[in-house]
């Protein structure tokens, strides 16, 4: 059988039928070369899960968009009614893509073909759901992408088209944690035991916590995304193996995953499945939050009423870790925001604020001031323990506000 020939992005877009429902991969799988070639697509709908701060395009300029994550670039489209936001957990988003989303086509980046197939390179998370749904598959080839040793591969005969589309990788630079983040990381790392399986997101807090684990041993990692902190743990001898859906970091990370057999890339159906997570012994899930109230409710997607993200996988991992034998779910946040002017331990979440972690799901909360164990705590114990790890200037005010709330119950 003759080899499939790659076509140019312009040729692909020119032949693209209108009226389709098209999934656009996010994170490092975003097909930038094809999107650059796209003008408006009348009658079509785009389906996406863009990552804030990474996928910076306003897809709603091309066609109406249905998303399960929100980015600043999509906010004007949300206001104009061209963006429809679905508040879905990662596991629920995967189930949505498998059927109810009714995607006709999926467009995603891949590494260069090898042995009759292509690797999904940096983003193995959601494309397998579109494969299962029977969507037409369009692989945008970038030979510079890593052909990872252990990950999802798609046979060439399952693809509708190969598009020649090198584009820049999204980069997440390393940040040196400040004093407060270092203190928070020490408290969170103390909750992890040698031999545990760790989950952590991305961002400064997660990187700081993972950095604080370098003295541990026999750890495993299971998460939706890895950053440069994971290879650093492998090199330190702390980590034995990692399972992830995507990679996001520096070019050094992308070079590393191209040859690292101890990092396995899997679909969301494996990385976020509740049954799989609950079956992992001693799973310690560490996730960030915007704020936590005195009832134990956490907000991780809204700031001052503005939707900045989505539910993501936090509830999947919190619930999975709580069901795991010996597992723990850690919610980590700095105690203040806006340069110390506001407390991120609050009396109650503002009206209309979505709850990412319910008070029935909360387990352990960590700030730079300590650890609050909430899993079996009653209402008063929760408030007392959370106030104890709030920033000192806000503790008396929080105590007074709790007294008022308690009398009104």
UniProtKB/TrEMBL annotation:
Q: Which GO terms describe its molecular function?
A: hydrolase activity
The highest taxon in the source lineage is Bacteria
Q: Which UniProt keywords apply?
A: Hydrolase
Domain called Acetyl-CoA hydrolase/transferase C-terminal: residue spans: 249-401
InterPro entries to which the protein is assigned, alphabetical: AcetylCoA_hyd_C, ActCoA_hydro
- Supply the Pfam families for this chain: AcetylCoA_hyd_C
Check the record and name the PANTHER family matching this protein: ACETYL-COA HYDROLASE, ACETYL-COA HYDROLASE-RELATED
The protein here is known as Acetyl-CoA hydrolase/transferase family protein
């Amino acid at each position: 059988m003759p080899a499939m020939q790659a076509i140019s992005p312009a040729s692909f877009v020119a032949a693209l039928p209108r009226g389709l429902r098209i999934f656009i991969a996010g994170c490092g799988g975003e097909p930038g070369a094809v999107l650059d070639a796209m003008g408006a697509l009348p009658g079509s709908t785009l389906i996406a899960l863009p990552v804030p701060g990474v996928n910076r395009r306003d897809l709603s300029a091309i066609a109406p968009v249905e998303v399960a994550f929100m980015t600043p670039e999509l906010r004007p489209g949300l206001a104009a009614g061209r963006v429809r936001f679905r508040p879905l957990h990662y596991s629920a988003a995967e189930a949505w893509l498998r059927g109810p989303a009714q995607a006709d086509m999926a467009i995603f980046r891949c590494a260069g073909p090898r042995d009759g197939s292509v690797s999904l390179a940096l983003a193995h998370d959601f494309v397998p759901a579109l494969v299962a749904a029977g969507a037409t598959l369009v692989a945008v080839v970038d030979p510079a992408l890593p052909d990872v040793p252990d990950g999802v591969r798609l046979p060439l005969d399952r693809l509708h088209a190969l598009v020649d589309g090198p584009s820049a990788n999204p980069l997440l630079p390393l940040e040196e944690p400040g004093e407060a983040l270092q203190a928070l990381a020490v408290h969170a790392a103390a909750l992890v035991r040698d031999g545990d399986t760790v989950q952590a997101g991305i961002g400064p807090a997660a990187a700081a916590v993972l950095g604080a684990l370098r003295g541990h041993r026999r750890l495993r990692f299971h998460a939706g995304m890895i950053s440069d902190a994971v290879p650093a743990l492998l090199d330190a001898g702390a980590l034995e193996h990692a399972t992830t859906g995507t990679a996001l970091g520096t070019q050094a990370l992308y070079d590393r995953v191209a040859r690292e057999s101890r990092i396995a890339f899997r679909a969301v159906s494996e990385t976020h499945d509740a049954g799989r997570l609950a079956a992992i012994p001693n799973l310690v899930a560490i996730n960030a939050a915007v704020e936590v109230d005195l009832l134990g409710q956490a907000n991780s997607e809204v700031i001052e009423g503005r939707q900045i993200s989505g539910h993501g996988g936090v509830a999947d991992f919190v619930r999975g870790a709580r069901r795991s034998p010996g597992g723990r779910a850690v919610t980590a946040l700095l105690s203040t925001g806006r340069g110390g002017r506001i407390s991120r331990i609050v009396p109650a979440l503002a009206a209309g604020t979505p709850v990412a972690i319910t008070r029935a799901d909360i387990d352990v909360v960590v700030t730079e001031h300590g650890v609050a164990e909430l899993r079996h705590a009653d209402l008063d114990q929760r408030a007392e323990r959370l106030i104890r790890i709030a920033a000192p200037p806000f503790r008396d005010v929080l105590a007074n506000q709790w007294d008022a709330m308690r009398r009104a119950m």
